[in-house]
Amino acid sequence: MKMVVEKGPGALTVAALAKGMKAPIGSVYHRFPSRDVLLAEAWIRIVESFQKEFIETLAKDGLQAALNTIRWVREHPREARILLVYRREELVSGPWPEHLKGRIACLSRELDSGIRSFAKKQFGHAGKETLRRATFALVDVPLAAVRRHLQDGESPPAVIDEMVRETYLATIGSIK
Amino acid sequence: MKMVVEKGPGALTVAALAKGMKAPIGSVYHRFPSRDVLLAEAWIRIVESFQKEFIETLAKDGLQAALNTIRWVREHPREARILLVYRREELVSGPWPEHLKGRIACLSRELDSGIRSFAKKQFGHAGKETLRRATFALVDVPLAAVRRHLQDGESPPAVIDEMVRETYLATIGSIK
DNA sequence: TTGCAATTAGAATATTTGTTCTAGTATAAA
DNA sequence: TTTATACTAGAACAAATATTCTAATTGCAA
Fold first, then answer.
1. Is A140 in Cβ contact with B148 (below 8 Å)?
2. Which residues fall within 8 angstroms of residue A125, CB to CB, at 6 or more apart?
3. Does any CB of chain B come closer than 8 Å to the CB of residue A11?
4. Nearest CA to B134 among B102, B98, B175?
5. Which residues does chain B have within 8 Å of residue A8's beta carbon, measured at their own beta carbons?
6. Contacts of B134 (CB under 8 A, 6+ apart)
7. What pTM does this model have?
8. pLDDT tens per residue, range A140-160
9. 3-state secondary structure at position A87
């Protein structure tokens, strides 16, 4: 993860990884069947840890969930960078390893149903447009707010919290 | 561009490109010194065409500029995908070709000064926080709103215009 | 101690892909 | 017609890099 964060996913060759770990290449392949699986497992672990917090917070309060994303990024700059700066396909180039497909599917289902529940609880319905608005305010905007700073290797400044809050109120407030 | 949009930048090998064009590999290298230069020129051309419109509109009206971004994406889905779905480094892996450095620098300067002028005109000042807010409302939010749909290969739905407008008013309205 | 499994080591292999090279062909101006 | 330039062709080359393989070595349980 350190290498990916510092030099990008392309720099994480198996040889470089082994060297960085002061271990032989064989040891890498002793534990992981391929580079793709190694990266897929790292990636999914990060997503799970982030999403767990997000879903839990969302069940209580939408705005808090949006703001919590920013807090999580500040607390886990390394993981955040891996999640938000690079495309998933840059890390895991091939198809998903069979043994991870279940976890992936679960993640996407959980997020979906988390947002759906939020919409139902908050507005009494979960139509297409309402879901889009919720996703925008809860997911897209906080991530966008934070991305530019991650790219520069900086911690998101305080204004961002304000802007995400304002955006949230404006976007969610317009739902009838 | 068609191949990048459909199969991703990794699929655009020089051999595949040549085949797709029904031309020999040699013809590619007759016109471009390297794959990187080819992609860099394509990329920069797209950015220039997008940014030109953006800056021109921004000089008249901020909200219009934000909304214009969405319109541009709807009208140029292919170019938009290349710009917004992939990281620039995925297209141009090495350092920028010398003969393009000027144009790159110009683009970034133009955007900066465009936003700065906007802030000055609108609020009479261009402090750090004001610039951040402006960048958020004018650039980050419209792009984020649109990105999810580009990834799925869909045209951005109409709600997005509303949300960008609401966000703009909320974020820019808070500047004193 | 003995024996088995886990691990180390890294050289060798296979593959993919950008780039070069050389020889030939078309085109258009003089 | 001549000639020079632009272009076609694609085989050959080189570099990068994931993966495999085989032989040693270590650690641990019986």
1. yes
2. A119
3. no
4. B175
5. 89
6. B62, B115, B118, B119, B122, B172, B175
7. 0.93
8. 999 999 999 999 999 999 999
9. coil
